[in-house]
Amino acid sequence: MSEAAAVPTPSRSLWGQTEGEARRRPLRPGDVLRVIARARRTAALYGAGHPVVASTMREAHGILAGLVAAGHSLRVAIHEDTFYVERTVLLEESLQLYALLLDLREREVGVLEFHAGVEVEELQHLVEVLNLPPAELRREGGASHALARRGVRHITVGPAPAAPEELRLRVDPRDAYRAGLRVADELTFQASRGLPLEMRKARMVVNALLDIIMEDRAGLLGISALRAYDEDTAHHSLNVAVLALLMAERLNVDRARLIAIGLAGLLHDIGKVRVPREILLKAAALTPEEQVVMRRHPVYGAHLLRNLPGLARVAFIAAFEHHANYDLSGYPRIGTRRFPHLVTRIVQIADFFDAATSARRPYHRPLAPAEATRFILDKAGTIFDPVLARIFVHALGLYPVGSLVELDTGELGVVLRPGERELTRPVLRVVQNRFRDPIAPYTVDLEEDPERHIVRAVDPEAAGIDLTAHLQVQ
Ligand SMILES: [Fe+2]
Ligand SMILES: [Fe+2]
């Protein structure tokens, strides 16, 4: 077993550039896969002896040296469709470098381990070996033999570790969110060009989100509460997927159906790609004519999703019905059915909450999260499914993560997590004292502190409080 692949922020200038040009982003373990993928491509394109290849190798080597601390090693393994290091899934790399994953698998390489002291030539040999056609590699006795024959000592490869039952891989919520945004953007792009939607990636992201929700509900809620500060469809789609999963996870639904519900959330507004941009991005209220066009997006969406196979087909239904309302008072008119589909009713609440609380439309004042949950409860039974409305508010808490609230002591706090037992007693980060002076923030669990009570939700903008800063410290 390798030493923990501690990833220091290397002091060297990154990417072989001068300090001024250096990328700000610290190296991450997944970067090793990126540089290998790039080196393989360059070598295949130019041939091993080309100067471009040599410089790519040096760059790759520099990155590796930054990642593998002295005396340590970095071990990347494959499990099913994912790369992982230690027990953390490299989600972005698993999505983006899928071709590399398949190539490695074809060459029976399931583990790549880099040891401190790895040399540029060894990296070159690795790339050479990985670029051999699988049949030729087998004739050489497999990748491990081929490397040994070339004198490579600081890189070892092996077959994928047998997946033990207890292999519990975890996904970092921020990675999942970032990967999700990218996938949402890609889906939008594909839909706008009439290309087939790449559902494999969408499924992987939803799978990862679901794992996170099952492990730590509040972590992901916190991240999705940051959404209001980035304004685009990708954020909205992803937030709706997260919120829909948070609700659905409380229903008695199997995992395959949960994934389908997440996908339905992710894809519900895909039809907007056919709404002209000037309407979509208009910074003022829509005219009645523009509204007619905008209101076609459910029909467009259904058309785009009409061929999804299997359980994912509910995404087609949810796209079509998500503005229809529980009492069918919305649009489009949907025939004789009494209610929209269960999945639609889930997605609809998630959609309303995210749209109402985000700052996407400049001519609308966004609702505070607590106002939005109140509205959902008020309209339970008419606009929203009454049972699901309650489930939603239970999942989020009456004061959802990211709400700013005033306590009876006059202090102000930001909600970090919903209360475990009581809707009105979440975990807070107190940021102002009763004189409304900023203080060194501290965390209080209201379920453990019966003395203090929330009196109301407060508009963060009016109070001059930047929620982002407080939510990121979680
Ligand atoms: Fe919509
Ligand atoms: Fe929406």
Note down, in words, how this protein is organized.
The protein is built from 21 helices and 10 strands. The longest helix has 20 residues, at 173-192. By secondary structure, it is α+β, with helices and mostly antiparallel strands. It has 3 domains: 14-158, no CATH class; 173-396, Hypothetical protein af1432 (Orthogonal Bundle), CATH 1.10.3210; 404-472, no CATH class. The chain has helices at residues 31-46, 51-67, 91-96, 98-106, 120-130, 134-139, 143-149, 173-192, 199-215, 217-224, 233-248, 255-267, 277-280, 288-294, 297-304, 313-321, 342-357, 369-378, 386-396, 460-463, 467-472; strands spanning 73-79, 82-85, 88-89, 111-115, 155-158, 404-407, 412-417, 427-432, 438-445, 454-458. A 5-stranded antiparallel β-sheet has the order 3-2-1-4-5. Helices cover 47% and strands 11% of the residues. The chain is globular, with a radius of gyration of 25 Å. Residues 1-23 have low confidence and may be disordered. One fe (ii) ion binds next to loops.
Helices and strands, with pairings:
Elements lengths: L30 H16 L4 H17 L5 E7 L2 E4 L2 E2 L1 H6 L1 H9 L4 E5 L4 H11 L3 H6 L3 H7 L5 E4 L14 H20 L6 H17 L1 H8 L8 H16 L6 H13 L9 H4 L7 H7 L2 H8 L8 H9 L20 H16 L11 H10 L7 H11 L7 E4 L4 E6 L9 E6 L5 E8 L8 E5 L1 H4 L3 H6 L2
Antiparallel strand pairs: 1-2, 1-4, 2-3, 4-5, 6-7, 6-10, 7-8, 8-9
The protein binds fe (ii) ion (2 copies).
List keywords for this structure.
21 helices, alpha+beta, Hypothetical protein af1432, 474 residues, binds fe (ii) ion, globular, 11% strand, 10 strands, 5-stranded antiparallel sheet
